[in-house]
Amino acid sequence: MIAKRVAAEKAVELIDNGMVVGLGSGSTSTLAIRKIAEYVKNGLQITAVASSKNSEKLAKELGIPIIPFSEVKEIDITIDGADEVDHDMNLIKGGGGALLREKILAFNSKKFVVIIDESKLVNKLGQFPLPVEIVPFASELTLKHLEALNCKPLIRRHNDKEWISDNGNLIVDCIFNVINDPSDLNQKIRSIPGVVETGLFIGMTHTLIIGNMEGTTRTL
Ligand SMILES: O=C[C@H](O)[C@H](O)[C@H](O)COP(=O)(O)O
């Protein structure tokens, strides 16, 4: 927890008055949201957009001013976690199922800051099952095409039911074990009709902040 916390706190230092801030999702992002709320209480003036209903609810409860996407022209900085990060700062995200909104935020941000503890660093992506958001219609066919890309696709379930994303879609966790060419795989998956988005974030990270158990951080 300390590794995630120091990475989150370091990232929050990058926020200035007047910024539009994108809020990520997951446990590391939650630590960042809590720190942002402290700054807001102490006078920092920002507006924020959230990448999930959970993050939006938490931010509102903590007094962070949230604006709807319809009012956002550009985001100054988005701070978000990741499930795996490779040497090129490519990511797997979506362990919490928020990948689509997270990718929209990252794509529309001047600065996309990723915060992780050092256990998330890998030589090659793919040990963590790749989350892919798909529409529920004809999901069996979409799964068949995912399987043809040499993975084991499993529809995410919770309490014996299919888990539904904030966008009303399904999440498929694709077990690849090793992803040799993340960019090529991302394109192949996105070309399957029925796929909404993948959890591969290729070339999107501007800054990576890695926290460790000693309570220090490294910024790339
Ligand atoms: O959908 C969830 C997000 O992509 C999270 O940022 C990712 O799963 C990392 O989560 P955590 O910070 O809890 O490890």
UniProtKB/TrEMBL annotation:
It comes from the Bacteria. Its EC number is 5.3.1.6. It catalyses: aldehydo-D-ribose 5-phosphate = D-ribulose 5-phosphate. The keyword Isomerase applies. Keywords: Isomerase. InterPro entries: NagB/RpiA_transferase-like, Ribose5P_isomerase_typA_subgr, Ribose5P_isomerase_type_A. GO terms for molecular function: ribose-5-phosphate isomerase activity. Signal peptide: none annotated. The keyword Isomerase applies. Substrate binds at residues 25-28, 80-83, 93-96, 120. Pathway: Carbohydrate degradation; pentose phosphate pathway; D-ribose 5-phosphate from D-ribulose 5-phosphate (non-oxidative stage): step 1/1. CDD domains: RPI_A. The active site is at residue 102. Belongs to the ribose 5-phosphate isomerase family. Homodimer. Catalyzes the reversible conversion of ribose-5-phosphate to ribulose 5-phosphate. NCBIfam families: PRK00702.1, rpiA. This is Ribose-5-phosphate isomerase A. It comes from Cohnella silvisoli.
